[in-house]
């Protein structure tokens, strides 16, 4: 069989296999540790070390060589990978000591320790079934979660339980569902820099309602219990504690203000801090914590009438003890030191990479949100310097003295990886495959509010008129219009089948400033759809080949919601839709995400009614294909099934494609490949 893009896209996990990833840089910059598989079709990552002096890459841990069953994952590890949208295997996470001389990981349920200098590998004699293993900063102890208990062990295998509970609903040292799914907090415990204490979360899920995820294709299997905090219902109770690793004395941490969410814990040589958030998300508080007593001191509060945004990498303490935050001020998200802005008003800060005497962050000019660059801020002088040139999308790991850069542009076939050590640039090898499509993309803006739009057209230059396919995400926290070829691979494949593909980042998407992001407050439907319509109205002038009498739309997750919303409410403009894993009624989605935008359903029922698809089905007059993984524990299949029932009751013809055993991801190769082909056939059939 000849190779095709859908087959390549599926077997390479969207062209990501074979790329270096998960970087850790040693403090002296002599070593860069990373994971990478052996080819663009190998989904088992090995552990590598780059020696920056010799510029050589060295394999230090090959999972296959150990003989462990790499598919033997604990349920907790499976859930962690789902929350992180992790589809690869082998070494998908690891941790190092503070000097980055040792690394520890879990393979087949067993702890594996590797000396990054000598390459020596040891497997401590610990019973299997643990996850989230870490090294103490001084490298003398291991920490991990076994079941619902937080444990530590010396390197000679002596295990001690630091914290446990007799209740089945209580766990120690793990992130609850909401923290991992919506806050970007994937861990539940943190070592002190001197290795003497651990700050740990105690999570009680007793208040959270139980949902059941069944597998209809295998009726002999019992349904899985899933604690899901549906909008308007109770969240898990999360508290913070500090444990002395020698005496095992446990100190409770008491925060002075009422809070619903523990969003961040940070511990560096300047001290221990934690950030809490209220249920309405309009206030965050940051506390300094005395690890010996557990006493707290409120050091910072931020409020916003809509919501306070959580920024990756923040808050943090600078070496001199001052506090670094990124509040929304004057219509941008800016870096502030002790509440004084240090970034200019045209930059939107996206994340913080490292904090020292030089702060490294990722930001974009709000005029060109599709370009992301790395910036350095010199703390003593306040001088800000761009480290990259504004050609694409850049991410970074490390510090100002040794930085790992991943850059993807519209002009390069694959992402490049570079280690910038002092004044030298060292290329890292990527083994990812070259895509079988070559994106033909034009980025522009539409209307007086400059809606970012990418237009993807066939590579063969075929003449019009061509049917149009909108291919958005459209929701908060995710951009589709970015200056990176990798973002348009599947869109280009659809374009090459004879479509003009349009991607529009409507109001609410990140990068264009605070007002733009908050334009969906209390309404995730009307303003989002209005922007897509505005782009559709402008399309004939942007691409003369576009036949706007034949317009389809496809999307997944929020994009699936937007696709269904468009074809139901505006069947006059959208003539076919593929809605994958759509939220159809926001009352069925989780607390932290949904209530940020729509409020509590008891307090703001009108917002939920106005954004639900279930009440609009009478307007549907065009073909709609609903696709949903039956094992999805994020956007549960009930969303699609309830919408289908309401559509059927209203006499509205539609199609439903259930995916047995598939979660919110679609990592299975045969599913991913044939799902693209199925969507194409549906769109061609109805837009011919």
Describe what you observe in this structure:
Helix 1 (5-11) packs antiparallel against helix 12. The protein has a domain at 441-687: Alpha/Beta hydrolase fold, catalytic domain (Rossmann fold, 3-Layer(aba) Sandwich), CATH 3.40.50.1820. The protein is 17% helix and 35% strand. The radius of gyration is 25 Å and the shape is globular. A hairpin with a 5-residue loop joins strand 22 (271-277) and strand 23. The protein has 688 residues and is of the alpha+beta class. The mean pLDDT is 95. Strands 39-40-42-41-43-44-45-46 form an 8-stranded mixed beta sheet, sandwiched between helices.
Q: N-to-C terminal Cα separation, in Å?
A: 28 Å
Mean pLDDT: 95
Helix content: 10-25%
- Strand count: 46
Number of helices: 12
Radius of gyration: 25 Å
Low-confidence parts, pLDDT < 50 over ≥5 residues?
none
Major β-sheet strand ordering = 39-40-42-41-43-44-45-46
Major sheet details: 8 strands, mixed
Structural topology:
Layout: H1 5-11, E1 21-25, E2 31-36, E3 44-51, E4 56-61, H2 63-66, H3 75-83, E5 89-90, E6 95-96, E7 102-107, E8 110-115, E9 121-122, E10 130-135, E11 141-146, E12 149-154, E13 159-163, E14 170-172, H4 177-183, E15 189-191, E16 197-204, E17 210-213, E18 224-227, E19 237-244, E20 250-252, E21 261-268, E22 271-277, E23 283-289, E24 296-303, E25 316-317, E26 323-325, E27 328-329, E28 332-333, E29 336-337, E30 340-341, E31 347-354, E32 358-365, E33 373-378, E34 384-386, E35 392-399, E36 402-409, E37 416-421, E38 424-428, E39 441-446, E40 451-456, E41 466-470, H5 489-496, E42 500-504, H6 514-517, H7 526-542, E43 546-556, H8 558-569, E44 576-580, H9 591-598, H10 605-611, E45 624-629, H11 638-649, E46 655-659, H12 669-687
Parallel strand pairs: 3-5, 41-42, 41-43, 43-44, 44-45, 45-46
Antiparallel strand pairs: 1-2, 2-3, 3-4, 6-7, 7-8, 8-9, 10-11, 11-12, 12-13, 14-16, 15-16, 16-19, 17-18, 19-20, 21-22, 22-23, 23-24, 25-26, 26-29, 27-28, 29-30, 31-32, 32-33, 33-34, 35-36, 36-37, 37-38, 39-40, 40-42
Helix pairs in contact: 1-12
């Amino acid at each position: 069989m000849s190779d095709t893009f859908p087959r390549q896209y599926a077997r390479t996990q969207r062209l990501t296999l074979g790329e270096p990833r998960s970087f850790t840089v040693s403090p002296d910059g002599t070593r860069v540790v990373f994971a990478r598989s052996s080819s663009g079709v190998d989904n088992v990552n090995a552990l590598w070390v780059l020696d920056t002096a010799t510029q050589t890459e060295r394999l230090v841990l090959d999972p296959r060589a150990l003989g462990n069953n790499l598919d033997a994952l604990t349920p907790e590890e499976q859930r962690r990978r789902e929350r992180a949208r992790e589809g690869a295997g082998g070494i998908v996470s690891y941790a190092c000591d503070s000097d980055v001389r040792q690394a520890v990981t879990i393979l087949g349920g067993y702890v594996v320790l590797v000396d990054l200098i000598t390459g020596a590998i040891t497997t401590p004699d610990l019973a299997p079934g643990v996850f989230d293993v870490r090294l103490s900063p001084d490298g003398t102890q291991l920490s991990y979660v076994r079941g619902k208990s937080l444990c530590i062990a010396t390197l000679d295998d002596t295990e001690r339980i630091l914290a446990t509970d007799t209740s089945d609903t209580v766990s120690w040292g793990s992130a609850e569902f909401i923290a991992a799914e919506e806050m970007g907090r994937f861990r539940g415990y943190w070592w002190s820099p001197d290795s003497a204490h651990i700050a740990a979360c105690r999570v009680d899920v007793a208040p959270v309602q139980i949902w059941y995820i069944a597998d209809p294709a295998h009726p002999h299997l019992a349904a899985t219990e899933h604690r899901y905090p549906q909008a308007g219902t109770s969240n898990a109770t999360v508290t913070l504690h500090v444990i002395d690793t020698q005496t095992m004395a446990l100190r409770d941490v008491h925060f002075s203000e009422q809070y619903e969410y523990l969003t961040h814990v940070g511990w560096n040589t300047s001290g221990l801090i934690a950030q809490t958030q209220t249920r309405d998300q309009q206030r965050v508080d940051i506390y300094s914590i005395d690890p010996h007593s557990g006493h707290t001191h409120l050091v910072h509060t931020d409020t916003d009438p809509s919501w306070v945004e959580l920024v990756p990498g923040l808050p943090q303490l600078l070496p001199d003890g001052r506090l670094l935050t990124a509040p929304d001020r004057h219509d941008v998200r800016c870096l502030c030191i002790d509440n004084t802005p240090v970034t200019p008003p045209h930059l939107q800060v996206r994340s913080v990479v490292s904090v020292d005497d030089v702060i490294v962050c990722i930001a974009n000019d709000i005029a060109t949100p599709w370009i992301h660059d790395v910036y350095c801020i010199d703390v003593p002088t306040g001088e800000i310097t761009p480290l990259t040139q504004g050609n694409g999308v850049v991410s970074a790991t490390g510090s100002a003295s040794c930085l790992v850069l991943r850059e993807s542009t519209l002009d390069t076939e694959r992402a490049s990886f570079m280690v910038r050590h002092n004044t030298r640039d060292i290329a890292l090898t990527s083994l990812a495959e070259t895509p079988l499509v070559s994106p033909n993309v034009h980025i522009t803006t539409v209307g007086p509010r400059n809606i970012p739009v990418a237009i993807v057209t066939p590579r063969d230059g075929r003449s019009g008129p061509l049917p149009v396919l909108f291919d958005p995400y459209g929701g908060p926290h995710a951009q589709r219009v970015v200056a990176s070829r990798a973002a348009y691979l599947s869109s280009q494949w659809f374009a090459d089948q004879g479509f003009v593909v349009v991607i529009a980042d409507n109001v609410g998407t990140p990068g264009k400033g605070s007002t733009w992001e908050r334009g969906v407050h209390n309404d995730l439907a009307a303003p989002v759809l209005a922007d897509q319509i505005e782009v559709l109205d402008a399309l004939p002038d942007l691409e003369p080949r576009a036949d706007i009498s034949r317009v389809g739309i496809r999307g997944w997750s929020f994009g699936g919601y937007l696709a269904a919303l468009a074809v139901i409410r505006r069947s006059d403009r959208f003539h076919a839709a593929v809605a994958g894993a759509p939220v159809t009624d926001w009352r069925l989605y989780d607390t932290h995400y949904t209530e940020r935008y729509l409020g509590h359903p008891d307090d703001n029922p009108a917002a939920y009614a106005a954004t639900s698809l279930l009440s609009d089905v009478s307007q549907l007059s065009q073909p709609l294909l609903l696709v949903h993984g039956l094992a999805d524990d994020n956007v549960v299949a009930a969303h699609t099934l309830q919408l289908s029932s309401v559509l059927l009751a209203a006499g509205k013809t539609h199609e439903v494609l259930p995916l047995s055993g598939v979660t919110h991801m679609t990592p299975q190769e045969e599913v991913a490949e044939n799902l693209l082909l199925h969507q194409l056939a549906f769109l061609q059939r109805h837009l011919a």
